[in-house]
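User: Fold this; C-alpha cells only.

Assistant: Input:
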Amino acid sequence: MRVFLRDTVTTILIAVIIVFGLQAVVQKFVVLGTSMNFTLRDGQHVLANKVVYKFHEPERGDVIIFHPPDNQKDDYVKRIIGLPGESIEIKDREVYINGSKLSEPYIKDPPEYTLKRQIPENEYFVLGDNRNNSSDSHNGWTLPRQNIVGKAWLSIWPPDKWGLVGLHYLLIDDTIADNMRIASDFFTV
C-alpha cells in the first residue's frame, strides 16, 4: 500500500510540475477578429512561445501576441514589420523599410493608406495581414518591446488549420532579409 501511495503522489507531483512548467513557456490564445486574415482566422486557437524572446530579439515577419500600448488587458496578434530604429513608409499600396520595398505574399489586400515614420528604439512597427481592417501601428502607435507576450507558434484549432504559424520569408528588394532565419529556427526557444 505504501508503494502505491508513494507512486501516486510522485505521479501527481510530476504532473503538476509539468503543467506549471508548460504554462510558464507556452500559452494558448484565441484570435479575435479578422485583422490577420488569411494567416489566422477569427476564432482560431494558437499557442504562443513566451520565452523565445529571452534568447533573441523579435524579428521582422514574426507573428506575435502583445498588449497594445493603450490597452494593457487585451491581447492582440499582428506581424512585426519594422524593427527599432528603422524608417517605415507606406505609399502606392506598398510597404517600404529604409527605402526598400517589402514583399508581402501573406497579406489579404495591399494597404490603402499612406504613412511615413521613424520607429523609436526598443519599439516595433506591427501590422495585421488584413491591412485595411486592422487596429495596428498604421493608426499612429508603435509597440514597446515590454508589451510583447510571445511569438505565435502553433495553430491548434480548428483541426484543418493545425500547423506552424506565419512561415513566410519576407523579402526586401527580392533578397531574403538579413534578419530572417530559416524555417527550422521556428522550433527553437
